């Protein structure tokens, strides 16, 4: 088969005839436009071009196998690459890593987590920023996540010897230097070329545990290898461990296969996501999708439930849209029996949002629960993790001490971490601050973000009058006003059902 001239490829740049070049091969993706989970507009925008670099932000190259049969047209003539359509320059594309220091403050000037957000917004293209910052519907759940932490204050004790502070905590039996970990987040390749391996390297170097998402850009085996390599570089001196956040696909065989792969790779715990029976309505993402469709003459393209997402063959979403079969709406309590059998290790339920389910998780033998509303990206006006923690303290306090309780959502300061620990949390997950730090500064930003949170936590502990985390108690915070909100008629009804 003779090589295809780049000028010929460039002619096929419409929805009626759409060709793209991937790794020097030419593919006709016209029939795949309506099936592409990321939307047809994304493919049409790359039509007639070398789409390899853009493609690799979201998929490993073997994802090409998902294209319809006979999509491969041949190879592009290497002498005619210059005749391919060229991407239009975008004013909001991020600067290269070599130029980053001239466009954002030096990483040492990030002294609080909001500083990382400002830096990320300065360098990220609009599409990536929308993905990272978007929330469900009108954003009320995200707003609640952030604001609820301000509704609790401390009750400091004085005249305590606080010359030395110990911040260590154990997560599922694995010691950590800190009582916080890096939360699972998908599609990091759209925000930084190093993606999840770069995040892991930063976590390992600072001794911080990391939970890896099913929706990661890179395959979970590659991410684990980056962890192993990073540990070897420091003679395995870091206590950092990797855990895996699990989205269950519809097909039972695929679900089991993924569990076995994760187990074989060496992840230390399975964090099952239980709050995604469907994807929430990400309003900003939908606007972006509509704009992309209009730009390529696809105004009639139907909208779907979507988030900006998935980048490997196991991912449950792509470009924010659900991938059929990769996000089950049928997950139920009985499924935990076979999952536990196949996994054979500790299980955490990620996305618990009420006291009843916390108690059920204990009854079904889970080792932990993660109180979370998915960063405000799922249900409109879902409870913040803090409010769920208080509800559990009110209606089923017996859960504390019998399984580990984590929470995430809206934590932006080490003092927020300390408040959660006072109220009984085992540890907390921090997501967006680390994602923003990665976006702007790579693994150096991740390390800096750990330092910022640890510094704030140490200061908070000393000013509160404690030197180790086994000293923190609920009476060290003023939470009675929020606890009173638990005693509502509907809450009393809920209590009677427990």
From TrEMBL:
Keyword Oxidoreductase set for record: yes
A GO term, aspect molecular function: oxidoreductase activity
Disordered: annotated segments: 76-102
FMN hydroxy acid dehydrogenase domain span: 105-482
Protein name (Swiss-Prot/TrEMBL): Mitochondrial cytochrome-like protein b2
Record keywords: Oxidoreductase
Coiled-coil annotated spans: none
SMART domains: Cyt-b5
Domain Cytochrome b5 heme-binding positions: 1-77
Transmembrane spans: none
Gene3D superfamilies: Aldolase class I (3.20.20.70), Cytochrome b5-like heme/steroid binding domain (3.10.120.10)
Needed cofactors: FMN
Domain of life: Eukaryota
